[in-house]
Amino acid sequence: RRVLFRSLTAEDLGSLEANIRVRMEELEKVVDGLNPSSATTPIKPKQASLGAKMGKPIHGVFICHASKDKVHVARPLARELQKRGVDVWIDEGEILIGDSLRRKIDEGLRKSEYGVVILSPSFFKKEWPQRELDGLYQREVANGKVVILPVIYKLSIEKLTEHSPLLAGRLGAKWSDGPKKVADVIMERLGRPSSS
Length: 196
Known about the structure:
This protein has helices at residues 10-34, 50-53, 70-83, 91-94, 101-110, 127-143, 157-163, 165-168, 179-190, and strands at residues 59-64, 88-89, 112-119, 148-152, 173-174. By secondary structure, it is an alpha/beta fold. Helix 3 (70-83) crosses helix 9.
């Protein structure tokens, strides 16, 4: 007599979960390839709005991310928020050839109501995103209000705690829930209704 089912061990479940993650990433790449506004298409720089010319805050969110997370997280999230009417500051949509990186990033940090910080293993290996986070943190301290909106990508709470206990202590959106769900919670913080 053959046994059709067997009990799964913790190791079996771990392997299954890793396999599912790999397949999901492969599927995301295929889906991105089918969509003309895919994550691989850079976001185009835009003309300064009247509010920007007058020196007023113009962006709903600044997306702070490591360059390795741009295709799979930053662009899809920026597009999802833009579809919902949020003015998003993302480097490739704001910085033109010849611009000073530091000045443009400082301007984006200053003129954005919130900073969406994509926390990932890549984030903690890069200097620029951490400087941007420092700027957002300083705004929180100076203004006494929430500015930093964490989005957790490919990072366990244990690993996040190793990198930054302060960030681990905040409620963050999980990218594994998908861009629409992450955008929903950001919209809630912005005081706007979500799409679902």
